[in-house]
Design brief:
The chain is α/β, with parallel strands linked by helices. The chain contains four helices and seven strands; from the N terminus they run E-E-E-E-E-E-H-H-H-E-H.
Length: 149
């Protein structure tokens, strides 16, 4: 089993969110095992880091939280912006359609949810609450596909 890489970020701007609105400039951060092991103006690790990142002109902050999303709408985002809501509900989202007409495979459900996950990670979101609608295919396999993504 290999050890996790040690990463040193040099000279970053840090929004610590440790109880205040503190923004710190020129901060070094040592990341070990996925956690910040040291933070300060000139971190000197005892063991050389595996990777050094130039943090100048970069912001380091805690991950963002998306407290409400609908991964079942990932395929539709921006596609029907000019339609009235009733048209979206009845025609686009297939509300009231026969289950056989709209049932997705677990692989399709996984891909649809994963698309949103990738987009959130690119924007710094590290936690999300998905209010996914899997009707008419709500079963353990479909829920597992969303959770896996």
């Amino acid at each position: 089993m290999s050890a996790s890489p040690r990463t040193l970020i040099r000279g970053a701007t840090v929004l610590a969110l440790d109880g205040g609105d503190d923004v710190r400039e020129g901060v070094d951060l040592l990341v070990e095992d996925g956690r910040i092991a040291a933070m300060g103006p000139a971190v000197a690790p005892a063991v050389p880091p595996d990777r050094v990142i130039d943090g100048r002109d970069r912001l380091v902050m805690p991950g963002l939280v998306n407290a409400h999303l609908h991964s079942h709408n990932n395929y539709y985002r921006g596609f029907f912006d000019s339609l009235p809501l009733d048209d979206c509900v009845l025609q686009v989202w297939n509300i009231g359609a026969a289950p056989r007409d709209v049932r997705l495979t677990p692989r399709q459900i996984y891909a649809r949810a994963l698309l949103g996950c990738a987009e959130m990670l690119r924007t710094g979101t590290t936690l999300a609450l998905d209010d996914v609608n899997l009707a008419p295919g709500l079963d353990e396999e479909a829920v597992a596909a969303v959770v896996q993504a």
